[in-house]
Amino acid sequence: MRAYELMVIFNPTVDERTIGPSMDKVLAKVTEADGTIENVDIWGKRRLAYEIQNFSDGIYVVVNMTTTPDMAKEVDRVLNLNETVMRTKLLRPNAK
Question: What does the entry list under GO cellular component (predicted)?
Answer without folding.
Answer: ribosome
